[in-house]
């Protein structure tokens, strides 16, 4: 298939539909079995999104939250790969003209059974153990929105700043980059998409491993590496996409995707831990959606407009570099939450872990988690002796057991 004519109205409509279809077609199910030292398992099947991140974080064991949280992004990447394969195969078979004549609807139609499957699964999920325990101990709020700005406003800004980096990188690389390569750099639509599929396949191999690594060295060292990487390497990587060598083009895209792997592998375990259980979902949702809608979600349009206005093909690189600066400041303002417990009414993580990460912060989190677990086990045993017929939450495991006498 020949190259598309850059800048034509038909091409813009085609790419807009394809990218929207690709994003919608990535509405998928991520399924992972969480095992906690043989004590039991939690089957988790969730849709991609901040609600899924909270659910997995509150269901996973403290010492393996990063590993299990990474499977949310693993499933997201699988969805993007399948979407890209469907779109690119359709383009290859019917051509750009065929897509404009109606074949662009195919990716949308394929999302219908996926959406129904997601709905069926979500109607059968039980509350996450951490939230269930908080409800049992009356540690939740009936109107958490009233306290959003009154308390923990600093964490709202930290999360919003990090999400600028996370989703600007996510949307520009996985959503906009094929459009940029074909519409602005003159590559064929199929070439840009197949190159992205190959890189995302490599991402699948790395995501769970990076998630597990975050337990051992902490979340912040990995996130800081990604932020600095985007600041320094975004523009050179975009420059490589514009050269004639296919190998160098692939290398440029691989660099951006490798940095994205570091971000997404730790995001699902990092962001829910910024807030205490009573207000976690409300504040997470508010900051995440605000930042995505006003900053990250508009990155496609802004990048395209700036390229058309300035004629500078490096705009996406500079965009990600600026987002990297914002993300770097936010990460430094976070607490280190690796190995910390999400249980309790306080913000997880050692208070002195704000700033540059240190290994001692992981040890402090582990000691605090063990102490809280010991206290709650003792409270459970006292409650069991006083009320043996009540439904009790097992605290040692990452799942909820119901005991009825």
Structural class: mainly alpha
Question: Main sheet, how many strands, which sense, barrel?
Answer: 2 strands, antiparallel
Q: Write down the CATH topology.
A: Growth Hormone, Chain: A
Instruction: For the record, give the distance between the C-alpha atoms at the N and C termini, rounded to a whole number.
Output: 70 Å
Q: Give the rounded overall mean pLDDT.
A: 77
**Low-confidence spans:** 1-48, 390-405
The total count of strands amounts to: 2
Helical element count? 13
Shape: globular
Description:
The chain has 405 residues and is mostly helical. The chain has a single domain, classed as MFS general substrate transporter like domains (Growth Hormone, Chain: A), CATH 1.20.1250. It is built from 13 helices and 2 strands, in the order H-E-E-H-H-H-H-H-H-H-H-H-H-H-H. Strands 1-2 form a two-stranded antiparallel ribbon. The radius of gyration is 22 Å and the shape is globular. The protein starts with 8 loop residues before the first helix and ends in a 19-residue tail after the last helix.
């Amino acid at each position: 298939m020949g190259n598309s004519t850059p800048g034509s109205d038909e091409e813009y409509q085609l790419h807009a539909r394809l990218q929207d279809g690709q994003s919608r077609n990535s509405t998928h199910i991520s399924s992972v079995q969480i095992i906690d030292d043989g004590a039991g398992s939690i089957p988790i099947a969730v849709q991609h999104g901040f609600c899924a991140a909270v659910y997995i974080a509150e269901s996973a064991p403290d010492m393996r939250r990063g590993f299990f949280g990474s499977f949310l992004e693993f499933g997201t990447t699988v969805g993007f790969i399948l979407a890209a394969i469907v779109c690119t195969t359709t383009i290859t078979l019917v051509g750009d003209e065929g897509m404009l004549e109606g074949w662009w609807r195919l990716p949308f139609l394929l999302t219908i059974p996926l959406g129904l499957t997601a709905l069926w699964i979500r109607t059968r999920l039980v509350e996450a153990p951490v939230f269930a325990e908080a409800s049992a101990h009356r540690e939740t709020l009936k109107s958490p929105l009233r306290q959003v700005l009154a308390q923990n406003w600093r964490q709202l800004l930290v999360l919003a700043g990090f999400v600028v980096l996370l989703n600007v990188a996510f949307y520009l690389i996985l959503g906009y980059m094929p459009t940029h390569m074909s519409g602005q750099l003159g590559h064929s639509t199929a070439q840009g998409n197949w190159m992205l599929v190959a890189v995302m396949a490599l991402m699948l191999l790395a995501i769970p491993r990076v998630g597990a690594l975050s337990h051992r060295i902490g979340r912040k060292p990995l996130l800081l590496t990604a932020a600095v990487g985007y600041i320094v390497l975004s523009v050179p990587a975009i420059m490589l996409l514009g050269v004639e060598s296919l190998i160098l083009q692939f290398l440029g895209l691989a660099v951006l995707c490798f940095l994205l792997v570091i971000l997404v592998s730790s995001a699902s375990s990092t962001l829910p831990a910024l807030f205490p259980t009573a207000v976690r979902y409300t504040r997470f949702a508010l900051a995440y959606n605000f930042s995505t809608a006003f900053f990250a979600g508009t990155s496609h349009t802004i990048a395209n407009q700036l390229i058309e206005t300035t004629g500078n093909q490096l705009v996406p690189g500079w965009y990600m570099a600026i987002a990297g600066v914002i993300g770097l400041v936010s990460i430094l303002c976070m607490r280190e939450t690796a190995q910390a417990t999400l249980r309790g009414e306080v913000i997880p993580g050692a208070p002195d872990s704000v700033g540059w990460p240190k290994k001692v912060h992981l040890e402090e989190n582990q000691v605090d988690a063990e102490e809280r677990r010991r206290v709650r086990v003792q409270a459970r045993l006292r409650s069991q002796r006083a009320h043996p017929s009540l439904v009790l939450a097992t605290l040692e495991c990452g799942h909820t057991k119901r005991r009825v006498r």
